[in-house]
Amino acid sequence: MKYYIIAGEASGDLHASNLMRALKKYDAMAHFRFWGGDLMAAEGGQMVKHYRETAYMGLFEVLMNLRAIFRNFKWCEKDVLAYQPDVVILVDYPGFNLRMAKFAKLQGFKTFYYIAPKIWAWNTRRALKIKKYVDKVFTILPFETDFYARFNVPVVYSGNPLMDAIDNRPHKEEGRQAFTQRIGLPDKPIIALLAGSRRQEIDRLLPDMMEMIPHFPDFQFVIAGAPSFSMADYEPYLSGKDRLSVVFGQTYNLLENAHVALVTSGTATLEAGLLKCPQVVCYKMWGGGFTDFMAKKVIIKVPYISLVNLIMNREVVKELFQSSFSLNALKEELSLLCYDEAYRQKMLKGYEDLGYVVGGPGSSERTAQRMVEGVGY
């Protein structure tokens, strides 16, 4: 069968690549055309656009790039029509994919949504749109399944694909000494910096994260390089900084062996939790107090911004968001996680509960099997 897959971010590239690998297992004639990244390209098929060309974050960035975004919509519509897939699989990336869901459905294509839009956080009414234009939603979080079911959206939960990616990581459980030796770092306790995968996130958060370096002389700070960036993108931040390194393609091993991580809100918060790395969740946007007010009173419909806390429905990890984010607050929380063992253990106990709720590996294969079966229903 012919699959047209649209993923617009690094995390979507990862999970879509695992899904593609599983689809080939259940469909020997699988052929792919996709928007995505290097991991998807490694699975074969034809890439239309790399997510580096299409990722925009925040209202201001979207407004500044509206012409490019609309060109991408038109390009994608024409490409889908030319390819004539058996199914269109939309992977996260809701700003783009919800529009493509409508187009694909109105053109008579079967539509699946994998890694469902987080509309439970900011626009619950869009569930009705998804019900109208998506044949089946494949969720990756247990509470999402209940949310969509309330709107009578056809929904399937097959587990979380992060468990597959984590379970398949190379060099797992190697230990800090072996890890640092393998990648050429000093054998010294690590504070990991996961500043995001988008340029805007790194510009806003990485400098503040780096302000912690002088306050924690017993640690080395290691940046998890985003897959869409190169060392040249980080070099402006490294000038004159001691005990600061960048590693690429080692995020899971870095989290597994770090003492603490500073993590930009997003999928990485769940990854840190599942890898049992104590963390501080960080996020700030443009607009200062106005954005803070709008986010809390108008936009965000849930009590937490991190997936760890959302899944557990309680505060397992500390969230420093917008007005609560400051250098003093960051230093205070980081100090607790570095030096207060009882505080660390409380978070680690929360991670144990998290792992039980999320479940084990095998999600990608279960989802692929149901998709192959579902194309014919």
Note down, in words, how this protein is organized.
The structure is a single chain. By secondary structure, this protein is α/β, with parallel strands linked by helices. 51% of the residues lie in helices and 17% in strands. It contains 19 helices and 13 strands. α12 (231-238) links the parallel β9 and β10 (244-248). Residues 293-299 have low confidence and may be disordered.
Got a strand count?
Answer: 13
- Give the overall shape, derived from the CA principal axes: globular
The DSSP helix count reads: 19
The CATH homologous superfamily of the largest domain is named: Glycogen Phosphorylase B
What does the average pLDDT come to? 89
Task: Indicate how many domains the architecture comprises.
Answer: 2
Helix content: 40-55%
* Helix-and-strand structural type: alpha/beta
Strand content is 15-25%
Task: Please outline the major beta sheet.
Answer: 7 strands, parallel
Q: Which regions contain 5 or more consecutive residues with pLDDT less than 50?
A: 293-299
What is the terminal-to-terminal distance?
14 Å
CATH architecture annotation name of the largest domain: 3-Layer(aba) Sandwich
Under CATH, the topology of the largest domain can be stated as: Rossmann fold
Oligomeric assembly? single chain
